[in-house]
Write a structure and sequence with these properties.
Blueprint (H helix, E strand, L loop, with lengths): L26 E3 L19 H10 L4 H8 E4 L2 E4 L1 E3 L4 E3 L2 E2 L8 E2 L7 H4 L5 H4 L2 H10 L5 E7 L1 H15 L4
Antiparallel strand pairs: 1-8, 2-3, 4-5, 6-7
Helix pairs in contact: 1-2
């Protein structure tokens, strides 16, 4: 996602020269189990070996079996598989039948950091415009609703997301 248009919006993110980020008063977010963040156009859900082993354990499978059944290699790195549904390309672990009216993750407690940090990804936190665009385009009904995340909690998630981005994929 390109956010170049937002770079001059006057918004700040941690690490910028501005003293306070645009989300200084916190942001509300609560997962509504809509599944919209786990589907869409073809993409990738990256994970490292530790995260893969956690997901395998949650599924009570060996790690090699997990890799064969649920993952693929993209540009030399592992991603979770996706499958085409009427909604788009759903993550292999998105289950739309287990809970009527909800889309839930089969490995929720062991999901990768890419999933754990949604929607507090660096590219979505660059500006209010980027946040609003993601809320509209995902669309994510949980963005702007529910639990108030403080600036400290958001920065923590951003740091976790950035650490994940620095991995060699």
């Amino acid at each position: 996602m390109s956010e170049a248009a937002d770079s001059n919006s006057g918004d700040a993110t941690p690490g910028s020269k501005s003293p306070e980020p645009w989300f200084r008063d916190g942001l509300r977010f609560e997962c509504t189990c809509c599944g919209n963040c786990c589907t869409g156009g073809e993409g990738a859900v990256w994970f490292d070996d530790d995260e893969g082993r956690e997901m395998a354990a949650a599924l009570e499978e060996s790690y090699p079996e997990f890799l064969v059944r649920y993952t693929r290699v993209i540009d030399g790195h592992r991603s979770l598989n996706e499958h085409l549904t009427g909604y788009g390309y759903d993550c292999v672990f998105l289950d739309r039948e287990m809970v009527p009216g909800k889309a839930v993750c089969k490995v929720y407690n062991a999901r990768p950091s890419q999933c754990r940090t949604w929607p507090f990804w660096p590219e979505l936190m660059k500006s209010e415009k980027a946040w609003a665009r993601a809320k509209r385009n995902t669309p994510c009904p949980g963005m702007g609703n529910g639990q108030l995340f403080t600036i400290e909690e958001i920065v923590g998630r951003l740091e976790q997301s950035r650490a994940s981005e620095e991995k060699p994929w």
